[in-house]
Task: inverse folding
């Protein structure tokens, strides 16, 4: 079963006994500022409070190469598990159920997975993503992209800001 826009109607699952489950396949071209697509499988399991969501996702995330500073697409694979609770309005001044959670079952019994998938994809991005493993980066002196051409800066040029620390 496919999900449209990463939203699932869970009304029937909420009526079923605890432990009941449903499986879904996600194949979504997200096209947001930071995610291109998400592809994977999600299992929803009924609990006494709500629904456990377990997913295995592969996503393409838009990031910047940490050496040459060019935009690149980074494919990440990750697993996640979250509990979705009904978003019941609370009395004034108190936080509502699910206000601080990623997954909330709304009044229409719809579960929107898009924000959880986006957040987990961003967490799965490497700390220093590279456009390629042999990326030469940029020259620290003149700022030229060393992947395209070599600069004319002296090879032994030192940064004068650190001269008193290096002996």
Result:
């Amino acid at each position: 079963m496919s999900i449209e826009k990463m939203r699932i109607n869970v009304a029937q699952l909420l009526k079923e006994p605890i432990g009941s489950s449903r499986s879904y396949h996600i194949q979504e071209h997200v096209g947001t500022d930071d995610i291109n697509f998400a592809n994977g499988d999600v299992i929803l399991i009924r609990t006494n409070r709500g629904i456990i969501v377990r997913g295995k996702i592969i996503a393409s995330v838009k990031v910047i190469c940490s050496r040459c500073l060019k935009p690149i697409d980074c494919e990440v694979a990750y697993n996640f598990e979250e509990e979705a609770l009904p978003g019941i309005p609370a009395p004034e001044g108190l936080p509502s159920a699910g206000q601080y959670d990623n997954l909330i079952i709304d009044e229409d019994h719809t579960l929107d997975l898009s924000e959880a998938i986006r957040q987990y994809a961003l967490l799965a991005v490497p700390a220093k993503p590279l456009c390629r493993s042999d990326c030469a980066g940029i020259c620290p002196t003149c700022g030229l992209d060393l992947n395209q051409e070599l600069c004319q800066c002296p090879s032994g040029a030192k940064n004068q800001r650190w001269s008193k620390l290096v002996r």
User: Anything to note?
Assistant: The chain has two helices and seven strands. The first helix runs from residue 11 to 15. The chain has a mean pLDDT of 83. The two ends are 66 Å apart (CA to CA).
